[in-house]
Amino acid sequence: MTNSELSKESNTKNNQPTSQISKKSFLLVTALLLFILFMCWVLTYIIHQGAFERENGMIIAGTFTKGEVKGIALWRVITAPFRVFADKEDGLTVIMISVFLLVMSGVFNLLEKTNGTKVIISRAVRKFAHRKKLVVCIVAFIFMAFGSLFGMFEELVTLLPLIIVFMLSLGFDTMTGLGVCMLAACFGFSAAITNPFSVGMVSDIAGVGVLNGAWLRVVFFLCVYVAVCGFLLLHIKKITANPKASLTYEIDQARLLQTDFSVTEEIPNERKTFITYAVFFAVQIVLLVAIAAIRAISSFAIPILAAGFLVGGIICGLVVCERKGDVFKHIGLGALSMLPAVVLIALASSVKLVMHESGILDTVMNGAIRALSGKNKIVCILLIYFLILLLQVFIGSSSAKIMLIMPIVLPIATALGISPALIILTYCIADGFTDMILPTNPVLLIGLSMANVSYGKWVKWTWKLQLLLFAFTVILLTFAVGINY
């Protein structure tokens, strides 16, 4: 069976793109953003207008002048999600980010449907299958690296059944499979080094390169990786000594009786697929480094990355697929699945547009600056951290949160002497770790359903790790402020 046929069979079982946003999540976030937009309209009839003087687009602290209360017409609020794409200040950014998300989703869908990620993981697990504990650490690293460098999360969770079967074949349990796959991918997404969906987007809004302050994010990634490996190895030690101590012991025993451990068998055209996609990811890493190193192109990071992924993805698809039309079909379906995210971006960006057109944006910023002025920078950065954590409960979409708060938070942080690099680090930390504990995250619930593990068992297994990482992130942000990062 060819990769093209495998892809067709996969689509027969599941026609939905891997990164599709659930209807429930979309409606919930849409309702919340519409409510925020409505409240902004109400505030325009309550809050005075005001304005800061600006230099290179950034506000100059101490130059605020107060105006009158005028309000804004309701039709401007209703049309804001459409007009934001033509806005002189943010329109181009919104368009670029929207196109970027569509391209990335399309290419990642192609990668999954043509077995690209599956082949890479399968090669790793077969090569090191005789060293059980080492393979756990290697697989966890691969999943974390994909999340940290390329922002892959939902796409990787589709490999969960494969990874669980492999962990069972090594004598471990379902929880180990969840840990090296779903947990590692999410934590990698949060411990981002160049993640385009967090680091890339915030860097673009802040006007800095994607590798700005990357050294501390690399250190953070390594610390999180050590924590994940330590957590998994302690768990393995526990269930090796007493298999019945596993929270999924009974489920695993039943699964062992009916599962064919064929995960170690070779996939048709595996070598060709592996080489093709290995070259693809190597080129993307080189591209990321080039964007960061060459100042002349660093300001065009988002369109360059989008073009690189699209061209590279199409070439790889044409190489591995016998039916060439499937390449564009997979990319198209993946892009269509991300259209709801574009709607959320438009709604989130409309909040700033309404506040800006009504003249209250600078008034709100001035109030925040006055409230935070004189306070320790550690307090300020922790308040921003907790704000993003709060929004994370209601808005799972990383891009929607960025477009909602970063245009406001970044100027305030700059006025308070907080660097863009620290804001990027804070956002990444707050954006993802809780996805593995919040019941509002659909990917977590889907992953647990695939593994046949209850939410209660998952919380019981991971809450100590979450608490440890939360304490560590607070210490890390405090350290970052202390060294003027």
Architecture overview:
The structure is a single chain. By secondary structure, this protein is an all-alpha fold. The protein contains 23 helices and four strands. The strands form two sheets. A two-stranded antiparallel ribbon has the order 1-4. It has a two-stranded antiparallel sheet with strand order 2-3. A hairpin with a 2-residue loop joins strand 2 and strand 3. The protein is globular. The protein starts with a helix and ends with a helix.
How is the topology of this model organized?
Elements (H helix, E strand, L loop, with lengths): L2 H11 L9 H21 L6 E2 L2 E2 L2 E2 L5 E2 L7 H10 L7 H23 L2 H12 L4 H19 L3 H4 L2 H10 L4 H17 L5 H11 L7 H28 L7 H10 L11 H24 L1 H4 L2 H20 L4 H13 L1 H20 L2 H12 L4 H18 L3 H18 L4 H13 L9 H10 L3 H28 L3
Antiparallel strand pairs: 1-4, 2-3
In short:
73% of the residues lie in helices and 2% in strands.
Structural class: mainly alpha
Beta-strand segment tally:
4
**Main sheet record:** 2 strands, antiparallel
Sequence of secondary-structure elements: HHEEEEHHHHHHHHHHHHHHHHHHHHH
Strand content: under 5%
Q: How many helix segments?
A: 23
For the CA atoms, what is the radius of gyration? 23 Å
Low-confidence stretches: 1-14
Spatial strand sequence of the major β-sheet: 1-4
Mean pLDDT: 83
Between the first and last Cα atoms, what is the distance in angstroms? 53 Å
Task: State the helicity in percent bands.
Answer: over 70%
Could you say which overall geometry the principal axes of the C-alpha atoms support? globular
